[in-house]
Amino acid sequence: MSRQFETAGAPHFPPQTTVSRVMLQVLLALIPAIAAHVWFFGTGILFQILLATGFAVGFEALMLRSRNKPVRPFLGDLSAVLTAVLFALCIPPLAPWWISLTGMLFAIVVAKHLYGGLGHNLFNPAMAGYVVVLISFPQAMTAWLPPASIAPHALGVADTLAVILGGQLPSGLSWDAITGATALDSIKTSVASGQMISEARESEIFGDFGGLGWEWIANWYAVGGVWLLWRRIISWHVPFTMIGTVLLLGLIAWLSDPGSNPSPLQHVFSGALIIGAFFIATDPVSGCTSTRGRLIFGAGVGIITLVIRRWGGYPDGVAFAVLLMNMAAPLIDRYTRPRVFGR
Amino acid sequence: MQTHLVNEARHAGERLHHFHGGLRLRHNKKISCQVPVEKTPLAIRYFVPLRQQTGREAEPLVRTGQSVMKGDPVGRFPQLGGGYLHAPTSGRVTAIARHPNSHPSGEEGLCVVLKPDGLDRWGPLEPLTDWEGTDPGLLRQKIRDAGIVGLGGAVFPTGVKVGEASERGIHTLILNGAECEPYISCDEMLMREQPDTIIHGARILQRAIGAERTVIAIEDQMGAVNASLTGAIKRSGAAGIEIVKVTTIYPEGGEKQLVQVLTGLEIPAGGRPTDLGLLCQNVATATAVARAVSEGKPLIERIVTVTGNGIRKPRNLLAQIGTPIANLVDQCGGYAPGAARLVLGGPMMGYALASDSNPVIKAANCILVLTEDDIRPPQPEMPCIRCGECARVCPAMLLPQQLNWSIRNGLWDETTDLGLAECIECGCCDFVCPSHIPLVEWFRFGKSELQILNAERQQAETARMRFEARESRLENLKLERKQRIAQKKRALGDANEKQEKIAAAIERARAGKGGEN
Amino acid sequence: MLTAIITITLLGVLFGLGLGWASGKFRVEADPVTEQINDILPQTQCGQCNYPGCRPYAEAIARGEAGINQCPPGGESGIRALADLLGVEAVPLNPENGEQKPKAVAVIDEAICIGCTLCIQACPVDAILGATRQMHTVIESECTGCDLCLPPCPVDCIEMVEKPRAPEEWTWPRPPGQKSPAGIPAVPEGSQ
Asked: Closest partner residue to C180 among B107, B408, B441, by Cβ?
């Protein structure tokens, strides 16, 4: 007579969002910038993305199996794919295939799973992988391409594949002929050699603000980032303070010594700053959780980036800055706990 | 500082404030408000549970085979100021036996099983007709004897609540009509259909606690309610009762959030609204108070919203305590195809029941039957990705992800530090979590564990004190023994010395005597 | 080269003297950690840890002689609390000391009791009421379940009875989910 029902805990509502939906939206936000990248620098980046994704998913499946975790749901949450794509966007488009392999090995196996897997990693996996390959393979990691509009020799699809997979340059071309310095590279070398930045800026690789082509890619990253803000996937705190700090301190530095300090807008639109502000430093797992903590986190990344760019050994410091602030994040969280109701 | 807060709280309702977090949810209330409230017909059997949600079981006041009239007391709670349970209709007690009792544990409990005689006759009623001239203490006693508990969901004994309130000095009574959880509309229908009783109850409560004014809080999209309550206030001719519309954000109907919205003040941690000179009561509780005082009728029935996509004709019913839920469902046209879950309460805070033979209890504000599409399919729980959404929506400004971490790992000091006691279990954090972590279940478990741990710690402390007391008692005994022995020895030593002196003297005397001879 | 050696040596001597002075100036008096350890222990004074009571065990832990996993009544949660306090690794309960049992209290069978007071003298918290040739009874609320009264009883009239959880003591169950990282459950399984 009486009807039986299955029971479960509250709330009794269909799920509003899932982890994979969050990750998917971040990936979608990157698409415009990837398209711009292909436009300016050729198809290399697409192959890098494919390679990195393949390696990342492979390593993730391997680690999940060996840790006895359910493979399907964790692979389906797209977090490994996101790590791979962000990593691929930071490396030169012609980087050999073993760069992706090493990077993803370190990012997925060491930085993510050895620390406990999704939700437990202390460091941003994409940045950890990137830093490892940057320090280990400096030559391959500095072989950047000039934008297609000014490149003396632009490579086609088949040639690109050949370079990435086999290391074979097209006949008659040498590495020097294909690659060129980036805007940040040339600023660093010019400052080191005592040249004024204004002189360095006369090179054709500079656009209006940052490097030619690179500034457009940065714009599209910003568009994607603003869309993520609107969708409430990320919060405004980290991008705001990161870009704000760079603008503010960059302005002070530029006004005091325009010869050796680029303009603040140049800083913002060069290198990985915009992608870092919206996509990398906003990684929830390795960042701070409290709102005040996120403000401090963003400011810290901005400051350290500027310091490395000005005085450090590398042209761009976003990756190192993010990793250093990842280390500080738990402590910042502890000291910025919000007040509990009623206390 | 205390009086400063109390004085500020006197301005309750003049301006509206905000509380942190909260969610805008789809209401789903209209479907159950289309027809007026119907009374449930007499059931074949009534099962009145002797156990409320928390606390000890009531002692039965009737025996098997006893005849009872409608409203006769059938159970009494031994602690917490002693509340009562009453018979929902006249008839005979056929058993006091274990039966499903709508408890969140899913376990059965003792129920008074009542077989109605069909006459539905009240026993002798003793209304307090001149309530305006009655001593407030007598009013409070009437409230307690009528078995009235908070009908907003917490079922705290109202007699105890007003008793405490009257001791502390209350200036404003807040009637909570801000029914914020989706689907539930019992309070809304009550305010539309019985506004005069509510106002009457408000005036009685005001007198019982000595408050100067009453503020009735309703949601800002309850248009018809506003009109009906305003009319009732006018008709009653009472001064000092005003209606305030609060913004509809879940969970603004929670006591702490409502007080914050009306006054801008936060109830101190571990405190209650009475600390600010306020008392909150649900509108249905006020109605029960009016019935108890003016008609002498104890609490035996309440309005229950029976709704959800799993019910054919959702509506509000006036149901007697102890009616099996199956009866209510039948009155609403039965189950719709695909009914998959039976929830007592709302979709955010309610708990699932295993069977519809469970009875209506005083806490049953809503029976929600959901279909498969309405509920979360069982899926593997992902690890927390620290997105921070839970902290963004928490009305108590807690860090649910940190609490989740510390409770799972048994870090109880940290859990207390993070403020688990302030969690109102509203379910907002659960709702937004992308990893589908059952946060509220963990918090409920955490609160229980903390309670158990504190009890154990206290026990260990008592045991330690008793042990140390025993040790010192044994030490003292030993010391006393030593002293006694030492004394005895000394006494013995004295005695020996005396003997020797006498013997020596005798010797000398003998020697002296002998020498002379 | 020589200047380097001399400088480093001088610095080493300087720092060594500084550290020596600091270790004397900032010495922590007494040994407060014993008190903290004792506060964590459940105070049953049962002796299962091989020490005559909780305080001697606490002192032994503070001296480094005893492991932190010798207390069955404290259970896994007690071990973990000690591990947190002392900054050492939490290890599973040593089975040689016994196993964690659900809370039980002693009950005297009054029909058999001969009023010899041996159990009263044995109880470490004075939880047994009685006098010579008078009926003995255990005060249930004070009994810690330490078992020390069972051996002395000459007529074996005491038994340990588990206290069942009363319905009003029902608590929300632990949701299914991961355990703590060390694999030690936060709440001992089966003892709710």
From this structure: B408
For the stretch B311-332, pLDDT in tens is 999 999 999 999 999 999 999 9
Contacts of residue B339, defined as CB under 8 A and 6 or more positions apart, other chains included, come to: B308, B310, B311, B369, B370, B371
Task: Tell me how far apart the alpha carbons of residues B35 and C50 are, in angstroms, rounded to a whole number.
Answer: 74
User: Quick check: C191 pLDDT over 60?
Assistant: no
Q: For chain A, how many structural domains are there in total?
A: 2
* B346 within 8 A of B138, measured Cβ to Cβ: no
- Which residues on A lie below 8 Å from B106 (Cβ)? 7
Question: What residues 50-69 of chain C have any CB closer than 8 A to a CB of chain B?
Answer: 53-54
Q: Are residues A323 and A219 located together in one domain of the fold?
A: yes
Helix (H) or strand (E) segment spanning residue A7? none
**Rounded Cα gap, residues C63 and B61, in angstroms:** 61
**Taking residues A31-46, what's their average pLDDT?**
91
Same domain flag for A153 and A246 = no
CB neighbours of B32 closer than 8 A, spacing ≥ 6? B183, B185, B305, B306, B307, B314, B315, B316
Name which of A58-62, B154-158, B478-482 the model is least confident about: B154-158
Helical spans, DSSP H, in B308-411: 325-331, 389-393, 400-408
Angle at B233 between CA B229 and CA B238, to 5 degrees: 155
Q: Of A12, A17, A290, which is closest to B343 when you measure between CB atoms?
A: A12
The answer to whether C170 contacts B447, with C-beta atoms less than 8 Å apart, is no
A119 vs B contacts (CB less than 8 Å): 382-386, 435
Distance CA(C85)–CA(B292), nearest Å, equals: 56
pLDDT above 50: residue B469: yes
pLDDT of residue C184: 32
Domain boundary among B320, B348, B363: B320
Cis link prior to A11 (omega < 30° from 0)? yes
Select from A155, A179, A203 the last residue of a domain: A179
- Spatial neighbors of C143 by CB under 8 A, at least 6 apart, are C105, C106, C125, C127
Grade residue A85 by pLDDT with cuts at 50, 70 and 90.
very high
Q: How confident is the model at residue C31 (pLDDT cuts 50, 70, 90)?
A: low
Q: What is the distance between the alpha carbons of residues B513 and A60, in angstroms, rounded to a whole number?
A: 121
Task: Please give the single-letter amino acid code of residue B101.
Answer: N
What does residue A330 show for φ and ψ, rounded to 5 degrees? Answer: -60, -40
pLDDT, residue A131, reads: 95
B10 pLDDT higher than 60: yes
pLDDT at C186 over 60: no
Would you mind telling me the total number of residues written for chain A in this entry? 343
Expressed as residue numbers, the domain containing B261 is 2-320
Rounded-to-integer distance, Cα A225 and Cα A247, Å: 18
Is B315 within 8 Å of B35 (Cβ atoms)?
A: yes
Q: Which residue of B has its CA nearest to C55?
A: B464
CA angle C150, C153, C157 (to 5 degrees): 80
| Residue A223, domain extent | 195-333
User: Does residue C180 have a pLDDT over 60?
Assistant: no
Q: How many residues does chain B have?
A: 517
Amino acid at A247: L
pLDDT at B495: 76
Q: What is the pLDDT of residue C89?
A: 83
**Best residue of B54, B409, B413 to probe chain C, by most C CBs closer than 10 Å:** B409
Instruction: Give C165-177 pLDDT, tens digit per residue.
Output: 666 677 888 887 6
How large a percentage of chain C has pLDDT more than 70? 88
Report which of A333, A217, A312 is spatially closest to residue A268, judged by C-alpha positions: A217
Looking at residue C185, its pLDDT comes to: 33
**Mind listing the domains of chain C with CATH numbers?**
33-97 (1.10.15.40), 102-163 (3.30.70.20)
